[in-house]
Amino acid sequence: AEMVTTGNITTIGQNSFYETFANADKMTKGPDFSNITTIGDYGLCDCFNMSGLTTPPDLSSLTSIGAGGMANCFVNCVSLLSPPDLSNLTTVGSSGMESCFLNCVSLTTAPDLSSLTSIGEYGLSACFNSCSSLTVGPDLSGLTSISDYGLLGCFAGCDSLTTPANLSNVTTIG
Fold first, then answer.
1. Is the alpha carbon torsion for 154, 173, 145, 91 positive or negative?
2. How would you write the pLDDT of the chain (174 residues) with one tens digit per residue?
3. What angle is formed at CA 150 by the lines to CA 145 and CA 154, rounded to 5 degrees?
4. FRET partner for 151 with CA separation of 20 to 30 A, picked from 29, 70, 113, 157?
5. Number of neighbouring beta carbons within 10 Å of residue 35
């Protein structure tokens, strides 16, 4: 059974789930957010700071993340085996995914971010910091614009990284 379902809700507003599941260490599966298309400013900030989470929430419809929308979202989810489906995500605002997967030491692959076209300031800053098992970086082939500090420290401490992010279509940095 799902812990939380959002039904027909398509938007998570400002601070809506801020620290909602922090330290709920026995929770292993994330909620069904499959209809969510937009996360507002700090909407899922610090939301899933839990050691037992193995399956992320369903974010397959997500297209836009506001400022700090998923900042620190999965920090210290040391049991997280796979990232959420972010394949429809097109925009990440300032600090939108800053430190999002920090210290997710069991994560071996990054989410598919191939639809992402722009990253705001600090958008993916420290996003995968200390993900020591990460071997494959995100597909960022759709990305054309990276704002200042957009990828600052993004892969610091990723000692196992063998396939970095694909940045082949970036035309603007800063």
1. positive
2. 345 566 688 999 999 989 888 888 888 998 889 999 999 999 999 999 889 999 999 999 999 999 999 999 999 999 999 999 999 999 999 999 999 999 999 999 999 999 999 999 999 999 999 999 999 999 999 999 999 999 999 999 999 999 888 889 999 888
3. 125
4. 29
5. 16
